[in-house]
Automatic annotation (TrEMBL):
Domain ABC transporter: from-to ranges: 6-255
Keywords recorded for this protein, A-Z: ATP-binding, Nucleotide-binding, Transport
Record-given protein name: ABC transporter related
Alphabetized CDD domains for the sequence: ABC_Mj1267_LivG_branched
SUPFAM superfamilies reported for this sequence: P-loop containing nucleoside triphosphate hydrolases (SSF52540)
One Gene Ontology term of the molecular function aspect: ATP binding
GO CC aspect terms: plasma membrane
Length: 269
């Protein structure tokens, strides 16, 4: 039986009188790609914000890697192995690509104000080299060596998305949360990003929870898909099962009930 790395138990979230999430429960298997889909305003990003710690739910529990992290801050969740990218880019635009990625390694440094003097005497150089090697591995993996010294704010949107993914990978995560990683990309950029997501899942063993509107990509690379609508879970299962659901057909394929009936009749005949 596959172990779950993330368990969401009856999460509810409200802003004033507006309910963003209502009793949502699901689990994500370790080593899988899990996608959350739904129309705008369905609560997808709110759910990611609850998982990452940006929002604290009104009720429910978030269990990550066997630990209850519901009340932990985002930094504490990062320390446990949770990475995140954002729908709107959150890079340091004035910094180089290399420096942006190195920032992602900051929480892994052993230095602090108490151990600082001893740290620099004993292990600074060795640790610095180890972090540099990891950063270079990520740069090679995402094929961004040619822009390593470029200022992040000057890059194209697609490349900035790739740099943000690199910074999330630099956290050395067990789980990575991707909020619309392909939004605003052209077809070639989407194909590249889909390949990187698959590879980081298969080669690095990182579990992925992803919000994405491109249904073709979602169905191609996901192991499981969950549909949210008005803050409630409608269906969760294998991609083919989800795509066979009448609601999903109407919402994402544009099929009306009459058209579905005709297609069913044609299939019978």
């Amino acid at each position: 039986m596959t172990v779950s790395i993330l368990n969401i138990e009856q999460i509810s979230l409200a802003f004033g009188g507006v309910k963003a999430l209502t009793d949502v429960s699901f689990s994500v298997k370790k080593g899988s790609v899990f996608s959350i889909i739904g129309p705008n305003g369905a609560g997808k990003t709110s759910m990611l914000n609850c998982i990452s710690g940006r929002y604290r739910p009104n009720s429910g529990k978030i269990i990550f890697d066997g630990k209850n992290v519901t009340d932990l801050r985002p930094n504490d969740r990062a320390d446990l192995g949770m990475g995140r990218t954002f729908q709107n880019l959150a890079l340091f635009g004035h910094m180089s690509v290399l420096d942006n990625i190195i920032v992602g390694r900051h929480h892994l440094l052993k230095n602090n104000w108490l151990t600082g003097p001893l740290y620099w005497v004993s292990g600074a150089q060795k640790e610095e080299l180890a972090h540099r090697r990891k950063v270079e591995e990520i740069i090679d993996f995402l094929e961004i060596s040619h822009i390593r010294k470029s200022i992040a704010g000057t890059l194209s949107y697609g490349l900035r998305k790739r740099v943000e993914l690199a910074r999330a990978m630099a956290l050395n995560p067990k789980l990575i949360l991707l909020d619309e990683p392909m939004a605003g990309m052209n077809l070639e950029e989407k194909e590249d990003m889909a390949r990187y997501i698959l590879d980081l899942n298969e080669e690095f063993g990182i579990t992925v929870v992803m919000i994405e509107h491109d249904m073709g990509v979602v169905m191609d690379i996901s192991h499981e898909v969950m549909v949210l609508d008005f803050g409630k879970k409608l269906i969760c299962g294998l991609p083919d099962e989800v795509m066979a659901d009448p609601y999903v057909k109407r919402a994402y394929l544009g099929l009306e009930e009459e058209e579905e009936d005709i297609l069913q009749l044609e299939g019978v005949n």
